[in-house]
Prior knowledge:
The structure is a homodimer. By secondary structure, chain A is of the alpha/beta class. Chain A has helices at 10-21, 37-41, 50-54, 67-75, 80-83, 98-109, 123-129, 140-153, 165-193, 198-205, 213-217, 219-223, 233-250, 255-269, 280-287, and strands at 2-6, 25-29, 45-46, 59-62, 89-92, 114-117, 120-121, 132-137, 154-161. In chain A, strands 3-2-1-4-5-6 form a six-stranded parallel sheet. A three-stranded mixed sheet of chain A has the order 7-8-9. Chain A starts with a strand and ends with a helix.
Amino acid sequence: MRIAFVGTGVMGRSMAGHLLAAGHEVRVHTRTRAKAEPLLAAGARWAETSAAAADGADAALSMVGHPSDVDEVWRGPSGFLRVARPGQLLVDLTTSDPALARVLAAEAAAKGAEALDAPVSGGDRGAREATLSIMVGGSPAGFAQARPLLAVLGKTLVLQGGPGAGQLCKLANQVAVASGMVAVCEALAFARATGLDAAAVLESISGGAAGSWGLSNLAPRVLKGDFAPGFHVRHFTKDLGLALAAAQASGAELPGLRLAARLYAEVERAGDADLGTQVLARLYFSRLGA
Amino acid sequence: MRIAFVGTGVMGRSMAGHLLAAGHEVRVHTRTRAKAEPLLAAGARWAETSAAAADGADAALSMVGHPSDVDEVWRGPSGFLRVARPGQLLVDLTTSDPALARVLAAEAAAKGAEALDAPVSGGDRGAREATLSIMVGGSPAGFAQARPLLAVLGKTLVLQGGPGAGQLCKLANQVAVASGMVAVCEALAFARATGLDAAAVLESISGGAAGSWGLSNLAPRVLKGDFAPGFHVRHFTKDLGLALAAAQASGAELPGLRLAARLYAEVERAGDADLGTQVLARLYFSRLGA
């Protein structure tokens, strides 16, 4: 298939690479051309704009940063929708705004194209190993059309509902991650404050009812003083903002999410937006004077 | 070995049963004799008091409800400490107060006995299958002495530090569980409020960064409307109270723990203290009018 791929950051680069490796013809565009070079070296072709990448393609995919970037790549003067045509598949993989996803789907439908919102979880490693969970919003027909491509990128593919439902599912994921991070950091802070050996505590508690992905994967990094980003604080706070807005719009009262958003805002004010989400533990430790 | 076991509720019954099955001579005492009958039928002997059970035993173990019960079983007029003697091993398996554990250890030491605090996690199932995580506070010598007995009851045995450290570790576990439950319930509430199919959401999010024991084990029960206790709300609120007190005493500022304690107090006020901790989800749903 002829595929357009826009956005070749850490995640997008792996994804576009898998599509190339699967034998597809891939045209890429991204804000900073240098970031596309490894893909161009591997056989992808360069396009000067999102529209140029998508023009004539069977499918156009985007994996960018913020909803405003998605809006630009799809609805901008050189965006996907300028060249969308009947039968074409358009997929946004960015974690973005459910309301925007519904707008994109409606505008794509007006041109006879199928649009899906398909945000992912699994991080850079999931993208690299093609083990992502991909949460899809759109029509069953669009999902069926996209499935062979998505199967190249991830292993858990679920249609969550109509346009926007993929984004809402990803936000539900982030709601769980948010209080999950509070759980991890408070257990570590409690251990430190009460004089326990946190590594021994993790050994005792990680395998039981307190167990979580974060406790197994992020807590050990905290103990090593490793705050390098798996997932960046600044991306997480974006997601928390989207989740808060969606919760408010739907009447859900989520005090744990509000608390996490408040704590991560403090992390950003401390200048740690470019570190990994596990740096929240350092905020707790600093309050202990430890 | 001659072993005293006091407290034959759901957890204690399984534990005492394993000790019997391992060939030990077990004397049991519990508040309501009827609860000990299955053990007596299996070969345990009845003792009229905790002291009578412990008198002459190589080791005396307790698994009761609240710190006040532990205090009675150990320090009461017919308690373990009345008959404690040099070389005897005393072990409290109850989730209890770290400060009380230190008092018990000091009073046991004054009689030449070794006392350990050794609360467990893993629930009724972990007790039944002898897969508990046992978090031990006490001396290395006491831990070495107890290890063969504890290995009959659980599979993760870690000495966390001196007297009280086992209790503190268990409370660290409960701190993580507390915000972990908020994470699970808020993800479900978000899914419901935004019109998603919560089962499909769990399929997408349980295997990734949002994954946790609660999401895999309790969220599916919530979706089936199953609020039967694995772990009772009333026991959890006891533990949260102990954790809050220990956090305050050590200067740890844990807003997630405070939030969870506030929410579970609401669950108790709603009359749900005897249901399982997953009933917190119902509090969230009721606020959605759903």
